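Quick log. Single chain, no ligands specified.
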Amino acid sequence: MSAPLMALGLFTFGLNTAPFNELKRSTQERWESRNPVGTGPAYQHLGPGEDSITLDGVLMPELTGDAANLDKLRDMQADGKAWILVSGQGENLGKWFIQSVEETQSHFAGPGLARRISFTLKLTRYWDESSDRLGNLMDSMPENR
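-> predicted structure:
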């Protein structure tokens, strides 16, 4: 069994579920401009802005996970909850929600069975400190859907 690349709730990204081959992160800060008379704009730092992670990967159902794992992620997305994201090294990255799940199926064999499924998953940081929007871990386990 290969080591997990990352976990969102109890959904682990790995060779048997949804292995990603690229992780892109975009982090922003919020700034507001004020326009004092007689000078250029002055800026005030307001704190963190949007933080997003995009995971790109390819599923090959004969070798790796299949489309059912993407459906599991869609179920987690539809719950409207944020999930704890943990790196493969065990670092807690905070609460994140699934913004979007995209998939492209190709290399068909038989009656519509894709042999290659590329996917893009976009996660967005959930900054609210309350736990009322935090997902139930049991609902993030693949076998519970």
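The two ends are 22 Å apart (CA to CA).
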